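Entry details:
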Amino acid sequence: MSLTLAQRLRIAMAEVGITQSSLAEKIGVSQATIQKIVTGRTLRTAFLLPIAKALNIRPEWLAEGVGEMRETSIKQRDGVPMSELVEIPIITWDSSDPLENDEVEIPFYKSIELAAGNGRCVNEDYNGFKLRFSKATLRRYGAEAKYAAAFPVSGDSMAPVIPNGSTVTIDRNHTKIVDGGIYVIEQDELFRVKLLYRQPGGKLIIRSYNSSEFPDETADIDTVKIIGRVINWSVMAW
């Protein structure tokens, strides 16, 4: 048996915990008007749309019991209202500034470019460059600061996800291959950043995001050294 208008309205009001007087105030009518609908003394009303809007329910459901009481999917906002934007001051720092309590420094191998392409020769020139990370960020990735390191990326094989000029951060303690993970590897004396997939028979698929220009490669797993798993990357827009 279908519900009456009065029953549907009582259900909707009970769900949001609103009183007759509060609903009446929201839509600009008297409490007596709402009471007549709730008690069934009024079977039709010109206030269905404002009532439905105030209770965040579908007017079709309130009027005729058609469909669900509320929309089953919520449309996501494509943007942020200006009223919600908060200006945060930018704090600059250099290597001479002391670390905050929740900060750590990790090595940035600026002169070693990981190839998002066919590979680059390994270069151990460190030069002491460092990047700062919050401890909370590393904890979220399950990484310890002593195992974290950052490298620049050169080439387009991992575009558009990791485009040329990106900086990747790796966890050198995470060398176990998880299929589909992004890893920094050493292969044939070349440093590379690639997606890895294990295969039967001790084989490994080395994959690029830009697969149209850089097709899959297959290698013996013991010829590939895992330097670490990529846990973060940053991209600069030029």
